[in-house]
Specification:
PyrdxlP-dep_Trfase, alpha/beta, seven-stranded mixed sheet, 15% strand, transferase, pyridoxal phosphate, Aspartate Aminotransferase, domain 1, binds pyridoxal-5'-phosphate, pyruvate, PyrdxlP-dep_Trfase_small, globular, three-stranded antiparallel sheet
Length: 393
Amino acid sequence: MDEAPAVGELSPPDRTLMGPGPSDVHPRVLKAMSTPLVGHLDPSFIEIMDEVQDLLRYTFRTDNKWTIPVSGTGSAAMEAAIGNVVEPGDTMLVPTNGYFGDRMASMAERAGGEVVTVDAPWGQPLDPAAVEAAFDEHSPDVFGFVHAETSTGVLQPSVPELTDIAHANDALVIADSVTSLGGVELRVDEWGIDVAYSGPQKCLSCPPGASPLTLNDDAMDKVLSRESEARSWYLDISLLEGYWGDERAYHHTAPITNVYALREALRLVAEEGIEERWDRHLRVAGALKAGVEGMGLEMNAPDDFWLPSLNTVRVPDGVDDGAVIQHLLDEYDLEIASGLGALEGDIWRIGCMGHSARRQNVSYLLAALGNALGEQGAVVDVDAGLAAMSERF
Ligand SMILES: Cc1ncc(COP(=O)(O)O)c(C=O)c1O
């Protein structure tokens, strides 16, 4: 290319983010991202690393020493977890009740593991009895489950029951907490979770780029006594330990700005209080759900397993789901998302996460959605929806 491209100043639209992530980023996090860099081995950065690790432990509700932000998106933390804990020849049990169980399976296979499944329909959580039966049949070494399934809007209940089954069978448990960390009750230590990974762009309201991961001593013992090296050099936890552990030695250049951002996002969690934050998500998303149902729409997830951070709403008959999404984007600068995988075309996915979990976002969403559905000729009662929402608040 001879001529310099005529690219103008960066000016993306000013969206309200109510999809499955990213969520609206808190202004304090954006401000932290404009802080000048220091080197990734600068003594001041090492102090910042300690602070981020402490804040992550608080948010995960864990005392695990091995608690770090992995450079990359949630899938990087996911692959660090699975690719290190699963060794060639291991068997990993994964769920089939959503999109992200399939991703766990792909990663376990690439790590050289054999994959077996525990089944539940999309839109339902795992039944502990089915998990127990799968353990009896396959004796897996590792069990993975998705705490908050972003594709179906289902929250996995009875986590301690699942981890008890795994531990009674000498297996390690890996929990996907990408859509729950910082928004939905999650207690890593108390619930017996050995490894949990997450993403920053959901309930932590931080841009993607540095993703939380925690491992307890049992999981770390397995990782550090592997017979073969982890297949990924970049995500090898035994090497990352050199940087995030006591040594603080170079492995790769940490994404400093993303670590700044995560620190501020986690500081906001600590200021609010983790339990108060879970309560806020319940309260605000409860009003969103009441509003959607008050308008005459139907939620996809059963009430008992409803996931406050990700609300799945059934597309009414005769309505074009994509046209509604486009209308919200064009007319309201408002993002929601379509269904994924088996639920594509059947549902919308409406996030209520972190800084987006605010009353003003919910009333804006309900009014805009009502308008978009009206354009499609659907009969919905927006006033009743807004009244139901207000009542819940
Ligand atoms: C449950 C779950 N797991 C894993 C991921 C992967 O995270 P990322 O897209 O940040 O790589 C996502 C992303 O939406 C998710 O919702």
